[in-house]
Design goal:
The chain is of the alpha+beta class. It folds into 2 domains: 46 residues; 92 residues, Immunoglobulin-like, CATH 2.60.40. Helices cover 34% and strands 26% of the residues. It contains 2 helices and 7 strands; from the N terminus they run ααβββββββ. It is flat.
């Protein structure tokens, strides 16, 4: 194999891996978007116009960023956070992220599995299902 053929083969292989990485990246975006829209649709379809029933629906939480997340020991960890939504009496989905409570005990100086939890309740006291981000601190 001459140098030109070798370079061509290497370029084709690099293009394949870049294309594969790009495809996976966009696939993740599509899956997350589908999940978000499914949750919104579920919230709307479960909502009735009766005000007595509207108070019974719990809010929901969507974690931002990767989950689980792997970071190198000693690196800085900045939590990507989460968003919280609720369906009000009129059936509108409202952002209640300002009420979100985050419990974050990640220590990047010690190898281990850490859990960042997110919780929220709406004006009527309905609690969302707690969401947890797993953060793995390890040597790479």
């Amino acid at each position: 194999m001459n140098d030109k053929n070798l370079l061509n083969a290497m370029a084709q292989r690099a293009y394949f891996f870049v294309s594969l990485h790009t495809s996976i990246f966009y696939m993740k975006i599509i899956v997350k978007s589908f999940l978000f829209l499914s949750i919104i649709m579920l919230a709307f379809s479960a909502c009735e116009k009766d005000e007595e029933l509207a108070d019974k629906y719990a809010p929901f939480i969507i974690i931002n960023g990767e989950n689980p997340l792997w970071i190198r020991i000693g690196d800085t960890y900045t939590d990507a956070g989460a968003k919280a939504y609720d369906v009000d009496e009129s059936g509108d989905t409202i952002n209640i992220s300002y009420k979100l409570v985050t419990d974050n005990n990640v220590n990047t100086t010690i190898i281990g599995l850490y859990k960042v939890s997110y919780s929220v309740s709406d004006e009527n006291g309905n609690m969302a299902e707690e969401q947890i981000r797993k953060v793995y601190v390890n040597e790479f």
